[in-house]
Specification:
With about 190 residues, the protein is mainly beta. Helix content is about 10%, strand content about 50%.
Amino acid sequence: MRRRLLLTAIATITLLAQACSGYVELDVTFFTEMDLEKEVPADAAVDVDAEGGAYEFVHRVDVDLTEDSGQLDGQVSQVVLNEVAWRVPENTMTGDLHGITLLVGPLASLGPDDDNIVVLGTIPLVPAGKTINTTELATLPEGEAALKDHLMKMQFTLFVRGYAEIEDPEHLPIGKSLIEVDARGEIHR
């Protein structure tokens, strides 16, 4: 059995107007923290076999740029993504994180399994206790196209789904991990 953790995430958005130009610089950073000590009780029952298992975690980040995009006057003709990157600046987890998938869809999405959700990319294994420097995300073409489309609409939802590895069913992993995802580019009027 996999237990789903619904955790909070924060998005910070920076839109920098370029004087006398037809575009605005875009810098969106998503902060997603998984803290097993807060989210899973120490006496939680885990239904896994002797080889272990995994806790599934799902983070939802709703992004609404409409208030921050007043300088665009609602006119967006094109979005150029220069970089989508990720990093793990803090990690005290005693178990590995794996299968971390970034998914993007409309703001009205109910969950990561909705038909209108598209995979943006996947973060490889995050070993227990290891931090990872900024690394370019290998985006899928359809995921990048969906992100650009939603950025043009100025509203979307990003889901982060993955698994915390449980090697010993008698001892749940503890600790927390902070995953940050950056999307940088330009919004053209």
